[in-house]
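Entry 12.
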Amino acid sequence: MLKTIIPYIAAFVAAVMLTACPSAAKTPGHSVNEPDELSSDAYPDSVIVGAARFDAYMPLLEGKRVALFSNHTGIVDGRHTLDHMIERNIDVRCIFSPEHGFRGTADAGQHVKSSVDAPTGRPIASLYDGKRRGPDPKIIDSLDVIVVDIQDVGLRYYTYYASMIELMNAAARAGKQFIVLDRPNPNGMTVDGPILDMRYRSGVGRLPIPVVHGMTLGELAMMANGEGWLDDSAKVDLTVILCENYTHQTRYRLPIAPSPNLRTMTAVYLYPSLCYFEATPVSLGRGTDSPFMIYGHPDMKGRSYTFTPRSMPGAKNPPLLGQLCHGVDLSEIDDEQAIARGIDLSYLIDAYSDLGLGDKFFTSFFELLIGRGDIRQMIIDGKSADEIKASWADDVERFRQSRRPYLLYTE
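Predicted 3D structure (tokens):
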């Protein structure tokens, strides 16, 4: 058994699930498998993910040809959901894998080839191989149901949900069932950022949602289905297996790093504020021990903190490789402070002002990340982070209202 577990989790350090609150609600018009019972006296580690509720979904898979969309985060009780399915004689025909691969070790943006899962012999069809958008229709035709079990972090530019949407499109076209084994959103307490201007639709922005949408994958799937966001406004036969003892105020601590450079909860909470450095010459710590918790550049002035990016697993050729960078260390920020700030562009503005590069500070990737075409100019014009945040306040309120029918957990 240990030999089966190791490949899924060897590169990641387990943390402890933290905090849980009761309550889940069913939204009319959708298939949602609710927990049998919710305790009003939830204990700190009482969140139960959808994949752990075997009695709720394993009967739905019996006698079906199944594909599982997952990666190294699909763990229940120390074993992968795939192993639990096989142990119960579920006919798993295929594994779909996202960015970073099934084992979660590939670099950001690195194309991952399809392969075979050595422990189980199941074929892995990569959804991030750079060859096609979405799964091979021949594979979809060979299935009855697609199951999703993957840990998302609740950001529009985090690509796992985009791969889920591609699978939903494929399932809708082929008339296949779609089941989401829901997991908590560690940023589920926050909604922030502009709604995506669909002129900037890309692999890091697929749906008209804010940067920080605050929804679980199950809720997001429900909204995509209900709002007609799938191709040709199609509908998929969707079932969501809910988490137990989770609300949107739960401070859920990820038990496994969801990708190579989001290694701590502090990084997860700072991710909404620091990812925009990907569209600038500034390093956000890839190739260090503190990715997404620091930022800097060789030419930044008057900074006592320094770091030098180096090649390492998950960051084999990071920006500013081998160059001494001067910058800022945010790794000691209080998590609640980071949560309360939501998207904080003051870090980006700080580096922009320091380097004095003007418009050359940004690449076109910035608009894809922020999702709107005017934010760059607002920074160039000297607007403060608070002034810029105010510009999308209406988007946040409008989205809070439009998502409400699809929420499965108490806000």
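Annotation: The chain is about 25% helix and 15% strand. The two ends are 39 Å apart (CA to CA).
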